[in-house]
Please model this.
Amino acid sequence: MNNSDATHDKRQRFDRIVAVFHMDMFRYAAWLCRDKSIAEDVVQEALLRAWKSLDALRDDGAAKQWLLTIVRRENARYFERRRLETVDIDNLTASQSALLAEAPNEELNDLREAIYGLEDDYREPLVLQVLMGYSTNEIAELMGLKQGAVLTRLHRARLKLKDEAASEEFS
Amino acid sequence: MSQMSKMMNCNDYKEALTADPGFEDESGHVDSCASCQAYSAEILALDEKIAAAMAINVPELTMPELLEIDTEKVTPLVARRRLPKPVWFALAATVLLAVFVGIRAPDMGSMEGTLEEQVLAHVDHEPRALRVSSTPVSDNRLARAVPANVAAMNHDIGLITYAQSCVINGKTIPHLVIQGEYGPVTILLMPEEKISAAKSLDGVNIQGVILPVGNGSIAIIGNREEKLDRIKQNVLDSVTWST
Model:
């Protein structure tokens, strides 16, 4: 196989993987950083890094975990570079608000705000479990935690959301 | 039986379920506990809403400029996890299915639409349902998802790895997932959704059908490569409405 064919095959492989997992990458990034514009930047950086190291991905069956790990690292790099401050939910930028502005009804909007308001340590495993379909073992591996810690965080996250939902019903 | 299942009580069960709604109660505690059954329904309903709330719209993919690099200088990393090839097909099928459904039904909060749209939206609604697995659900869970007053089902249907009571078109229905040759296959038993003729569900990477069965219907959705005819026959042979 010549260089041109190899490049073409590599690009095809990359496009195929990205087409499959792009939505997951974006949603994961968006819930990590809670800002759609930053999420787009993080995904762009993650795609570049993934392309550069595509040959390191030996098994396409592991592509999702590989890409989400890259997104996670790029998100951390982004905030290391910029040292952004924590934002108050009542004082969001337009880009941050965009994440909350799409809910189709009031109930989901309230829940989305509650998810937005969760501490990072609670929100991330919940996104991985509910949205990405990860097992608690897989979450532990990705986040570098023990499974017990993941279970504790998930338990607390759901209790918080459950309490929020209950308080909204009575407010 | 684990230590946890031997000693399961309401607190243990609720704690485990809150951390992982896919938790399987092997002790049978929940079958005899109305409080835990109600709590389970509450947590599962909450999780559906969380999934819908998290499913934000995704902007169109803009690929950055990808420069070719000298691969000779790249040091390969050890693969994180080696999976057999069929798992790749299954994962790809699962996520492509999600992508397809996302295109068809981007607003997961809105459950209105044709039966076909609702079925497709629901398949994407519970990502954990579409896991590649060789672990069958417990008989207890299956019995809860498919109550005897709804349908009778024998074990010839296949390896059932997910069973849950879900809502389609305002009606509670059994949602099952079996493991096909090319990944998870979703089966929705809809005893009250009468249709006059079979409806095809056709996508880039999935295929499916809603079959008229007596006064109801059964939806079967799998990977495009999946041999659905055999699965359809198995399902039809295995399921009998109770009403």
